[in-house]
Amino acid sequence: MTAAHVLGFPRIGAQRELKFAVESFWRGEIAEAELAAIGSTLRRRHWQWQKDAGLDVVTTGDFAWYDQMLNTAALLGALPARFGFDAKSLTLKQYFELARGNVDQPALEMTKWFDTNYHYLVPELDADTRFDGGVDWFFYELEEARSQGYDVKPALIGPLTFLYLAKSKSTGFDKLGLASRIVLAYRRILEKLAAQGVEWVQIDEPILALELDLAWRDAFAPIYREFAHAGVKLLLTTYFDSVAAHTDLLATLLVAGVHVDLVRAPQQLDALLAVWPQDKVLSAGVIDGRNIWAADLSAKLAQLETAKTKLGDKLWVSASSSLLHTPVDLAQEDQLDAELKGWLAFAKQKLDEIVVLKRALNEGRAAVATQLAASDKAAASRRSSARIHNPDVGNRVAALTAADSQRDSIYAVRADAQRAWLKLPVLPTTTIGSFPQTREIRAARAAFKRGALPEEQYVAAMQAEIKRVVDKQEALGLDVPVHGEAERNDMVEYFGEQLSGFTFTRFGWVQSYGSRCVKPPVIFGDVSRPAPMTVEWSRYAQSLTIKPMKGMLTGPVTILQWSFVRDDQPREQTCLQIALAIRDEVVDLERAGIKVIQIDEPAFREGLPLKRSDWDTYLEWAGRAFRVSASGVEDATQIHTHMCYSEFNDILPAIAAMDADVITIETSRSDMKLLEAFGTFQYPNEIGPGVYDIHSPRVPPVNEMLRLIAKALDVVPAERLWINPDCGLKTRGWPETEAALANMLAATREARAAIAEGRKLVVQAAEHGHLHAEHACGCGH
Ligand code: GLN
Ligand code: ZN
After folding, report:
1. Which of 139, 415, 496, 535 is the 20 to 30 Å CA partner of 705?
2. pLDDT beyond 50 at 773
3. Exposure letters 686-705 (e unless 16+ CB within 10 A, then b)
4. pLDDT tens column, 255-301
């Protein structure tokens, strides 16, 4: 029989129970036993859902108090020595210290899990790392499930993926050199599972979807040969992209089964079937583990039926990846209408979809005729609904010409036109947009949303805040002020709420890292902008000052990237629709007299595909979408863009091709390292490399900023250099914001004086506080 399973289930809980429990524990409000009980309840509930839906096994090992990579390190006993913890007797408190740091040690670094918005903790390895075993939580949870009567398939992150994603802490050290040691550790774990009577073990090796170096690829066969006699059957799982480059490796690898992602890469199925051995399981990931759409089950079945003919019982059905990346339960969404809801499926609903497919394969389509008919109906309504398809939007995108994604003149000509009216001093100063979001601001916004604050009063409150922010900037002497973004909760949601084609869920939370969750908007239909979104606020702000007010928008790529995106048309198409909506706003701002406009694109880099060979295609359409949004204005209007915590070195030509007049970036924490690439590449337009870190309340002294300005002047000519903080200030308090900006302006004055006197700016390096990387930026993503 074809079996049904999942690679993992979201652990946060339908009501984010895990988040709230963990945070209460951190605050000392609940005891460890209470936290443990909440975790236990959640695990049991999620297993029960899997069983009730009709999956053949429930998956364990997918639970974590903070992160599954940290869990794996704790299980293997490979914790960074700098903490001095004994992995075998690791306490929950110590586990959280690894994740969040303690008074002596910064936390493990955090980084994105492949191309998802989930962030894992990066294990630290060096030549001395041992894998002598650690805490037994993994085995405890397995036993817990079995004692509750579930048939279980434990899931582990595979040895090669673990090594590959870890960070080497000693120089000149090759992580692969640890392979023989880590193999022993995994074998011990597998043997222990065998002794406990476990039949199947899931072992995740998603790095196979990357363009792997040969050394890594060639490590698979020998390593997995070591597990062949461990006494369990291994299901090696891959996801997020095609592994077609490795069909022969996967067909011959000594594992009992392989899982592939047929949502991201449906075309790889044929290649795999062509070489697939009779006795090996192929788990088909056909239900989307990364998105919220209900599957077109008939279409999925058609895809699976050929495979079934060839593979028989060796064909298994699943979701493309762990369901970790989807919200938990659609049933809670009481504010979506039935039609829209019929188009969606969250993790719990996806369990049912998997089982419908399994039953159709095992018992014939007739056995699930009702479910298939309902799915057909939803799919048909999605194809034709007027709520989704707006011919005007489609036509507008189709009518885009080359001229629409290009400013009228080249940068040099535009720069002259802009200088002529802007008349800014050398090293102009600005900020990235948001100012501190005080409790009063949040309260006013929430009250307005609830209907408890009448619109006029809300507008008055926001205007008062704008005035406060503008006055402060005047007093500080910033050259290009902003209105402060008090009216915005989130830089994507704010726009999504005003654009058509978007909807919002009440509980569509997805774990981003640790206890942090995000609730992305859902783009379900063609996107257009019914009315101006920011113009009145900017116009009001401009009325308060004679300085050029900078308008503030979120760019099309970032809006796309931070939303659940429709799967019935290419991402590129959706992105161009958003680009046109933003373009309309840009043009309206210009018409309202706002002639410096920033279009934020902090998510531009994270859209890069996993395989480098796919980068150019992405960069081409993403860059075009940005230019479409920015190119409706005259030469004299200055377009800024902003990107945070990005590494640009490998995509600088694409950044330059966006052709923003000014780009502001985060550089202070890397001590301007990033900038060297801009210098070598000779970035043609203006740049504002952040001169102070906004991620902590620390107020950097004038000299420290001056030193960064001097470094920047080494690579960027003074006439193209801007001075600004690293990112928006919304997570900061007022006292440190004012103090830091005052220092930034003092540093700028000194730098200007040096330039005026033709003197080279030389600044002594002061003692450094530590510049360790921290993930979270002001944007909350
Ligand atoms: N304008 C936004 C702000 O200042 C930019 C934030 C971001 O790019 N992450 O908050
Ligand atoms: Zn930023």
Report:
1. 415
2. no
3. bbbbbbbbbbeeebbebbbb
4. 999 999 999 999 999 999 999 999 999 999 999 999 999 999 999 99
Q: Tell me the CA end-to-end span of the chain in Å, nearest whole number.
A: 43
CA distance linking residue 95 with residue 153, whole number of Å: 25
In one-letter notation, the amino acid at residue 457 is Q
Contact 362, 373 (CB under 8 A): no
φ, ψ for residue 155, nearest 5 deg: -120, 135
Contacts of 725 (CB under 8 A, 6+ apart): 431, 432, 668, 690, 691, 692, 694, 740, 741, 744
What is the residue whose two structure tokens read 């295609």?
A: 617
Is the separation of the CB atoms in 631 and 405 below 8 Å?
yes
Residue with tokens 């759409």: 293
Catalytic residue among 246, 695, 770, 775: 695
Distance of CA 323 to the CA centre of its chain: 15
- 153 with 59: CB under 8 angstroms? yes
H or E element: which one contains 398?
A: helix 391-398
CA distance 174 to 168: 8
Mean of the per-residue pLDDT values of the chain: 95
- List, for residues 467-488, the tens digit of each pLDDT value: 999 999 999 999 999 999 999 9
Cα of 771 from ligand 2 centre, angstroms: 17
Chain segment 692-710, per-residue pLDDT in tens:
999 889 999 999 999 999 9
Q: Which of 435, 562, 641, 779 to mutate to test the pocket of ligand 1 (most atoms within 8 A of CB)?
A: 779
Is 695 in the active site? yes
Distance CA 286, CA 375 (A): 15
- Round to whole Å and give the CA distance between 721 and 741: 17
Taking the CB of residue 426, how many other CB atoms lie within 10 A of it?
12
| Pocket residue to mutate for ligand 1, from 431, 437, 485, 491, most atoms within 8 A of Cβ | 491
Q: Torsion-angle region of residue 381: left (phi > 0), alpha (psi -120 to 50) or beta?
A: alpha
> Using CA atoms, how far apart are residues 672 and 733, in angstroms rounded to an integer?
25
Contact criterion met (CB below 8 Å) for 544 and 523: no
Q: What contacts 734, CB < 8 A, 6 or more positions away?
A: 436, 438
Sequence-ordered list of residues with C-beta below 8 angstroms from that of 268, at least 6 positions apart, any chain: 242, 243, 244, 247, 260, 262
CB neighbourhood size of 163 (10 A): 25
Nearest residue (CA) to ligand 1, atom 4: 728
Ligand 1 binding pocket (C-beta < 6 A) is: 432-434, 485, 491, 552, 600, 602, 642, 644, 727-728, 730, 777-779
Q: Are 567 and 523 in contact (CB under 8 A)?
A: no
Report the length, in residues, of the chain: 781
Ligand 1 atom 1: residue of nearest CA: 433
**Does residue 780 have a pLDDT over 80?**
no
Q: Specify the pTM.
A: 0.95
> What is the H or E stretch that residue 503 is in?
strand 500-503
> What one-character-per-residue DSSP string does 258-327 give?
EEEETTT-TTHHHHHHHH--TTSEEEEEEE-SS--BPP-HHHHHHHHHHHHHHHGGGEEEEESS-GGGS-
Q: What is the mean pLDDT of residues 367-388?
A: 97
Q: What is the CA radius of gyration of the chain?
A: 27
d(CA 435, CA 481): 11
Contact residues for 131 (Cβ-Cβ < 8 A; gap 6+): 76, 77, 78, 178, 181, 182, 184, 185
